[in-house]
Amino acid sequence: MRVIMVDDSAADRKLYRTLLEEDHAGAVEFVEAPDGARGLALCRSQAPDCVLLDYKLPDMTGLEFLARLAGDPPAEIPASAVVMLTGLASEGVAVKALRGGAQDYLSKDAITAEGLRMAIDKATQKVGLLRDLRDERDRLSRSLAEKDVLLQEVHHRVKNNMQVIVSLLRLQAKAFPDERLALMLREMQNRIEFMAQIHEQLYQAGDLRMVDLARHAALIAGSLLHTYGFEEPRVSLRMEMEPLPLAVDQAIPAGLILNELVSNALKHAFADGRTGSVCIRGGRRDGRVTLEVRDDGMGLPEPVDLLQPKSLGLRIVNILTRQLRGKFESVCELRSKATIFRLTFPLTEAGSMETDHDGT
């Protein structure tokens, strides 16, 4: 162990050397400096394990020495442990020394060989622990960065595989002479395409946990207009969504619900050449997310049992609503004759949502 003693008193330096030689039996290399400037130079050139630092030096205070030793800006981990030594028996001085960067503090009036050894051991152990923590943090950071790269690659490959499935469904739909079956395949294609978009955003974004649902809602709606053969001005699309970052395990089911509701509106609200609009609204308040799909088409021909719906699309919505621990409802406005499907669910932190008992 290398110890630098920075003290203007030759008698005190001799005392520290004697005490340490008694206790360490030749295991310590001593270097002496009579003032702060030479002490700093020795610290930078010899990298001691510990510095025994006098609080009052002829050219600076011990606190000034600590500040210069730490550097500007201060180093994250001290290069050397420091034990402050002073003849001032004051708790205030001790607190200032520890806040200034010293690892321990001793009063010169009460120094013993055992006390000095324990102070040096304690100070060097503190610095060693800080270094170990830094090394472990750096190791974990590198490991996390590697996992992020791997996770991005997984999202990229999942997206590519989903795009292959979408292409196969598109080809199969074109081969079906039965338009009803072809439409079912196109609907399945839209669901998979939405999930592929989510994985694409996760691959490209820096945040692998959060997805902006508002961005994908616009893509969903535009794709569905094309799928069902609608163009403006016959059916117009309005987006009234605020930016809505959601955890992946909420963004995917919420987006699939929007997909089903917009599909439902386009299939049933504008039959027989009827014109109108579809509006998608979304936002969050007080820890809850609200999503709405509103159309001003022909309205619901009869009340819909949302608990036991007949259509596949609404059954999917029910399953996904349970997964979100949300509430799903429909409203028919008498004055405007608008049909509104509304979903609300609690906002959760990324990765905190569990799947429902039915495996969804």
Which key features would you list for this structure?
360 residues, alpha/beta, Rossmann fold, Heat Shock Protein 90, 2 domains, 5-stranded parallel sheet, 5-stranded mixed sheet, 9 helices, 51% helix
CATH superfamily of the largest domain: Histidine kinase-like ATPase, C-terminal domain
Radius of gyration: 35 Å
What fold name goes in the CATH topology slot of the largest domain?
A: Heat Shock Protein 90
- Determine and state the CATH class of the largest domain: Alpha Beta
Shape type: rod-shaped
List the helices and strands and how they pair.
Blueprint: E1 2-6, H1 10-24, E2 29-33, H2 36-46, E3 50-54, H3 62-70, E4 81-86, H4 91-100, E5 104-107, H5 113-175, H6 179-204, E6 210-212, H7 213-227, E7 235-241, E8 245-247, H8 248-268, E9 276-285, E10 288-295, H9 312-323, E11 327-332, E12 339-346
Parallel strand pairs: 1-2, 1-3, 3-4, 4-5, 7-9
Antiparallel strand pairs: 6-8, 9-10, 10-12, 11-12
Helix pairs in contact: 1-5, 2-3, 5-6, 6-7, 6-8, 7-8, 8-9
